[in-house]
Amino acid sequence: MKKITTLSVSALVSAMLLVTGCSTNNGNQETSSQSVSVTEKSPANEKVGYSLGYMMAEGNKEAVGDLNLDTFEKGFRDGYEGTDSALTQEQMQEVLMTYQKEQEEKFVKDMESKATDNKAAGEAFLVANAKKEGVKETASGLQYKVIAPGTGKSPKATDVVEVNYEGKLIDGTVFDSSYERGEPIEFPLNQVIAGWTEGLQLMKEGGKYEFYIPSDIAYGEAGNSGIEPNSTLIFTVELLKVK
């Protein structure tokens, strides 16, 4: 899983430059974008323009969620047609850098707030979960429940294992699943989160466990793709084979 990173306005600017450099509209800017109709039978230059515009917007709408489309189109047209810009190059660079800094600060504050809330929610969940029938807890705070004990060998931290699994947040949201992909996954046990490294060594081949992993032995304050900072995680794991 990829780690969560702050947005980069420079990536959006690069995408804008790409569209400007690749446009094949030959200077014909008379038609408003709202009245243009594009189909698979449209001329090639219309389809190229639409495709570049759509993919750029789709790929960057999260980076600039409050983008003013009217002024964006105005700036794009002026730049493409060679019209004098309303702002100097220095002013535009300052505007974009200031915007990027503000968004990064906002992102950091948002992540800090989520980290605090998730930590508290995770701790409350684990306290309640520890009281449920069949749930055991290790010294690290890892909680687990045996669904099927298994009869094969147990892995060491240095072993490669083959497993099927489903990962959920404590609100029930599934963020990853080998079952959905239709095939198990294989990996060295010492190259995953600490909760997995510890938990799978409790299992035997053929076993199926449910793990409740505190954030400090999961992805911690950094979080991960689809996982907010300080999230407590729930995994259902089947240990298929120790290699």
TrEMBL record:
Record EC number: 5.2.1.8
Signal peptide: 1-24
Catalytic activity: [protein]-peptidylproline (omega=180) = [protein]-peptidylproline (omega=0)
Keyword ATP-binding (UniProt): no
GO MF annotation, one: isomerase activity
Source superkingdom: Bacteria
PROSITE patterns per UniProt: FKBP_PPIASE (PS50059), PROKAR_LIPOPROTEIN (PS51257)
Xref: SUPFAM superfamilies: FKBP-like
A Pfam family it matches: FKBP_C
Stretches assigned to the PPIase FKBP-type domain: 158-243
Enzyme class: isomerase
Record's keyword terms, sorted: Isomerase, Rotamase, Signal
Similarity-based family: Belongs to the FKBP-type PPIase family.
Name this polypeptide is given: Peptidyl-prolyl cis-trans isomerase
The organism's taxonomic lineage, starting at the top: Bacteria, Pseudomonadati, Pseudomonadota, Gammaproteobacteria, Moraxellales
